[in-house]
Amino acid sequence: MTLTIGLTGGIASGKSTVSAMMRELGLPVIDADEAARAVVRPGEDAYRQIVAAFGPDILQTNGEIDRAKLGAIVFSDEEERKKLNDIVHPAVRRKMLTEKEALVRSGAKTVVLDIPLLFESGLTAWVDKILVVYVDDDVQLRRLMERNGFTEEEARARIRAQWPLVEKIKQADAVINNNGTREETRRQLLVILEQWDALEK
Ligand SMILES: CC(C)(COP(=O)(O)OP(=O)(O)OC[C@H]1O[C@@H](n2cnc3c(N)ncnc32)[C@H](O)[C@@H]1O)[C@@H](O)C(=O)NCCC(=O)NCCS
Ligand SMILES: Nc1ncnc2c1ncn2[C@@H]1O[C@H](COP(=O)(O)OP(=O)(O)OP(=O)(O)O)[C@@H](O)[C@H]1O
C-alpha cells in the first residue's frame, strides 16, 4: 500500500521549500502548481478555453499566457477567479491522478501531492495524511511581498483568496511551523516522516 501525503499550506507559507526537502529525501512529489502551468501551455485545451473566456489581451507577444496579467484579474475579482478555476482545475486533477497512478503502479512506498488548494478544492479524500506548512500572518505577508515584489494590497488579495492558515491547521494530521530557519523546518519534517514511516529503509 502506498502512503499518499497531501502537502498544503497557504501562499508563500513554504510548501515548495518543504517539497524540495522531501525530494532530497527521495520522495516523489507531484506539484499542483507545476501541473497548472503545464495544462495552460499553447496547444492545450485549457489554453484555448482561457483565451476564449478572458480574451487575447491576457497573452504575451509569444502567444503564452501572461501570468502576471491574468493573476491581477483573478485575484481582484472572485467571479473571474472562479471562471479560471473551472477551466484549469479539472485538467490539473486529471494530470495529477495520472501521475499518481503511475507511481502507485511502480510500487512507490510514499507519494507526496503538493496541493495549495487541497482544502478549498475538497480534495482531502485523495490523501491518507495531511501535512500543513504553517507561518504566522505577518511572516507570510512579508515573504510573499519579498518573493514576488508585490505591494501589500496585491499580497493581501492573494492571501484572501485562500482559507486562513489557522483553519487549515485544525484539520491537519501534522503541522510544520515554518516561522523559523530552514534547518528548524527540516528537523520538524524528519520527525513527521519518521512517525509516518514514509521513507524507504
Ligand atoms: C492566476 C495565475 C495565472 C497566476 O500565476 P502565477 O505564476 O503568478 O502564480 P502561481 O501559479 O505560481 O501560483 C502561486 C500561488 O498562488 C496561489 N494560487 C494560485 N491560483 C490560485 C487560485 N485560483 N486560488 C487561490 N490561490 C491560488 C497558490 O498558493 C499558488 O501556490 C495562476 O496561479 C493560475 O493559473 N491559477 C489557477 C490555477 C490554480 O488554482 N492553481 C493553484 C493550484 S491548482
Ligand atoms: N524558513 C524560511 N526562512 C526564510 N525564508 C523562507 C523560509 N521558508 C521559505 N522561505 C522563503 O519564503 C518564500 C515562500 O516560500 P515557498 O516558495 O517555499 O512557499 P510556497 O508555499 O511554496 O508558495 P506558493 O504557494 O506561492 O507556491 C520563498 O521566497 C522562500 O525562499
Describe the structure.
It is a single chain. The chain has a domain at 1-28 and 108-201: Rossmann fold, CATH 3.40.50. The protein contains nine helices and five strands; from the N terminus they run βαβααααββαααβα. The chain has helices at residues 15-24, 32-38, 45-54, 67-74, 78-105, 137-148, 152-160, 165-170, 182-195; strands at residues 3-9, 29-31, 110-114, 129-134, 174-177. Strands 2-3-1-4-5 form a five-stranded parallel β-sheet, sandwiched between helices. The longest helix has 28 residues, at 78-105. The chain is globular. The model has no long low-confidence stretch (mean pLDDT 97). Dephospho coenzyme A binds at residues 11, 32-33, 36, 67, 70-71, 74, 81, 84-85, 88, 92, 116-117, 158, 161-162. It is an enzyme of class 2 (transferase). It is found in: Cytoplasm.
Assign the CATH topology of the domain at 1-28 and 108-201. Rossmann fold
Instruction: Give the N-terminus to C-terminus distance in angstroms.
Output: 15 Å
- Overall geometry comes to globular
Biggest sheet character = 5 strands, parallel
Bound molecules: dephospho coenzyme A, adenosine-5'-triphosphate
The appropriate CATH architecture of the domain at 1-28 and 108-201 is 3-Layer(aba) Sandwich
Q: What string, H for helix and E for strand, traces the elements in order?
A: EHEHHHHEEHHHEH
Number of helices: 9
The order of strands across the largest sheet is: 2-3-1-4-5
Class from helix and strand fractions = alpha/beta
Helix content: 40-55%
The overall average pLDDT, rounded, is 97
